[in-house]
Amino acid sequence: MKITEKVSINGAARRRLRGLLALAVCFAWSAAAHGIGAQEKSFLWKVSSDTSGIYLLGSIHYLKKENFPLNKAILDALNSSKRLVLEIDLNSATPDVAQKVTLSKAVYRDGTTLEQNVSPETYRLARQAAAQFGIDIQVMKAMKPWFVALTMIVIKLQQLGLDANLGVDKYLAERAKQSGKPTGGLETLESQLGLLDQLSKRDQELMLREIVGELELLDKNIDQIVQAWLKGDSASIESLLLAGMNEYPDLHQKMIVERNRRWLPQLEKMLAGGGGVMVVVGAAHLVGKDGVVEMLKARGYKVEQR
């Protein structure tokens, strides 16, 4: 699709938005509902070798109060684990450090502006979307397209009543902290943001263009994603989050597949070290043929959904 093409609300647009939403929600750093039947699973897997085991949980980074308490299987897994490992160790970095790292990546350092780095039509759409949130786009003039796109997603999710402070990873990190359980990260915030910052100028504009053009679809899409996660429905999560990624093979490879491969040796090291670890990553990383679950199965580990 050319950057200058008009975005329409159709099946293809919805798939594209879901693909970009998978990225945006995964990187917008910053539950079983009451009454779920016993026959339904959670988005939790037990990974076992001949001598040890770890838990692997797919996370939703934004939830609502009514999505709590989390499924008992998830809480039991945390309680029985000696250590909690997240994509990023949320208990180690202070807000000041996180802000400094983010701004070092998100702000243009060459004196140019957002308007100078995207097409007039993309800038117009971004300005209109910002205005709907009561924001003057000039406030974001020094920000790169990928960061503006994430900011728009975060604001929209907040308007829909979803809260990053109620995200699964943050909630579990706080529980681990309160119980004195050590935490760690598979990667750093700097390396994670670097992936977005290294996107080509075209891909960054495409990400911004699609997201601001389809924000009105987010209400329905995010609800479908959350409901599928609540039920442990991995097939639906794969469809909702990864189907649209076919439109962006380079992004999918860099943001999902390559990171999954980098994490695999760390997971195997945990298993070799005696297990007893609960690992929490974005739900999109666990599903599909290139997901962590299938990668572990291919290595000969027993992987069971709980």
Could you list some keywords that capture this structure?
306 residues; six-stranded mixed sheet
H-E string: HEEHEHHHHHEHHHHHEHE
Helix content bin:
40-55%
Strand order of the largest sheet: 4-3-5-2-1-6
What is the CA-CA span between the terminal residues?
A: 40 Å
- The count of domains is 1
Number of strands: 6
- The Rg value, from CA coordinates, equals 19 Å
Strand content: 5-15%
C-alpha geometry: globular
Q: What's the tally of helices?
A: 13
Kindly state the mean pLDDT as a whole number? Answer: 87
Low-confidence stretches: 1-10, 29-39
Secondary structural class = alpha/beta
Largest beta-sheet characterization: 6 strands, mixed
Q: Summary?
A:
The chain has 306 residues and is of the alpha/beta class. The protein contains 13 helices and six strands.
Written description of the protein model:
- The chain has 306 residues and is α/β, with parallel strands linked by helices.
- The protein has a 6-stranded mixed beta sheet with strand order 4-3-5-2-1-6, sandwiched between helices.
- The radius of gyration is 19 Å and the shape is globular.
- The N terminus is likely disordered.
